[in-house]
Specification:
Elements lengths: L2 H13 L9 E4 L2 E2 L15 E5 L2 E6 L1 H7 L5 E4 L4 E4 L1 E6 L1 H9 L1 E2 L6 H14 L5 E6 L11 H4 L8 E5 L4 E4 L1 H7 L11 E5 L5 E7 L3 H4 L7 H16 L3 E7 L2 H12 L6 E7 L3 H11 L6 E9 L29 H13 L3 E6 L2 H18 L7 E4 L8 H7 L2 E4 L2 H6 L3 H10 L5 H6 L4 E3 L10 H10 L19 H7 L2 H6 L17 E4 L16 E6 L2 E5 L5
Parallel strand pairs: 1-5, 2-6, 7-14, 8-9, 9-10, 14-15, 15-16, 16-17, 17-18, 18-19, 19-20
Antiparallel strand pairs: 1-3, 3-4, 6-21, 10-11, 11-13, 12-13, 21-22, 22-23
Helix pairs in contact: 3-8, 8-9, 11-12
Amino acid sequence: MNRLGAAILALAASSQGANAQVPDLVLVGGRVWARPGTPVAGPEAPTAIAVKDGRILAVGPDSEIRRMAGPSTRQIDLRGRRVVPGLMDSHTHFLAGGFELAGVQLRDAATPAEFTRRIGAYARRHAGEWVTGGTWDHELWGGELPRRDWVDSVTPKTPVFVSRLDGHMALANSRALELAGITAQTKDPPGGTIIRYPDGRPTGILKDAAQGLVERVIPEPSDAARDRALRAAEEHALARGVTLIADMGSWEGLATYRRAYAKGDLLLRVYGVVPIATWRRLADYVAKEGRGDHRLFWGGVKGFVDGSLGSTTAWFWQPYDDAPDNHGLTVTDTTELWRSIVSADSAGLQVIVHAIGDRANDWLLDSYRDAASLNGARDRRSRIEHAQHLSRAALPRFAELKVIASMQPYHAIDDGRWAQKRIGPERLRTTYAFRSLLDAGARLAFGSDWTVAPIDPLFGIYAAVTRRTLDGANPNGWVPEQKITAEEALAGYTINAAYANRQDDVLGTLEPGKYADLVVLSDDILTIDPVGIEKTRVDLTIIEGKVVYERRGER
């Protein structure tokens, strides 16, 4: 037996009685990545794993794990495939993703004509319903923003409100604007912008907080509709190896998860995060209800500093190169947001705040410093969501302040197609600065921001390792000095994500005593040419020792 196998088996034996050594499930004949630093090849590399009562019993060589199996033990032959801990997505809009799966699909609409055609076709099929969703990308057709006159003729009576893929602006048609009462006289709300024709009439494009003017008149979905969206989202995520998600959601979303859990229908693990403006309500909720368990839990609040790069609303120190009079904007009044951050932190809640521009990130790091100074030392695990465009001074501060950089690698290969026209080559050097942050000692937790990007950790790992943009224009990587290794990227979706979501005591690695959440991959992402990671598929997803997804043809 190799040293790793002996050590792990000894640990299992010391903590379990003799009869408890018979596992319910064993997986043998593979390549097991148990945690960072696990050998990925050679005689020291573990090849098998044993599971009992939903937890890891042992990890080691085939010979020892097979010896543990009893007559009733299920055995899965891995046939040389790679096994990794369950993959976690630290930043989703999960229920919105479930609704999106059934909504109009605009993500790959490459021309204004196709954009219009799809909206019209969807409106005809769903007469009497709002047309929502979309996730369009105007950069696909050269950067011209869509206008309501593009779609009014195909939706004369149907309200349309379709979002850009980043969620920071949306297009409303004339019917939706009418229902919302938005006219040429409507003023821009704080933290938002109404784009207008030269005569002052709204074009239909609403940025950031201005979207709320329409969102408030869209009918709320029923509980049954939310439940259906959850089921659709779960099936979609499990097929991609996702075993835990953090939902940057709402109280209605948390109620949806609790309904599913009460019925025994919640298949994956969920961290339900609610808006930071409701921190008092959450503090009271935690005092009364606790923080949940390892299947469904809460205790985090989400806020926003700024908008997004694609919508030119991310907050920068210097103006946009392609909009010289624009530095971006703050979505929330900074005085109000600072008070909420400090107050939520003082209540023992985890503070999770969106910041994309360099000025937004600097401001947020200062605010986290203030909260720690005012409220004293504790294990707070404050997070910056996205942390996309950083000043050089910000890089070491993540580690110094113990702030988690919660990032989404797929955005890099998406934004990399057009970001230089926004902020120029010099600022790009610290854009999606994975390598620089790791070298500075920061902890990176990865996610997708689904539906802004696909909820597929393998795509994210591919993006972090190769940085090859979606348009094929950067075969050696966009800002290649910020590439990281496949193991470092995998850690971002496993142990670091578990830490960011306060579950590292029971999840994130394959070690005795931890939950048996694991994923079997079709190829070995730790040894193949990184370009091939994009084509790797999930063969099995297992949560607490139960197979919850199996790719057709695999067994």
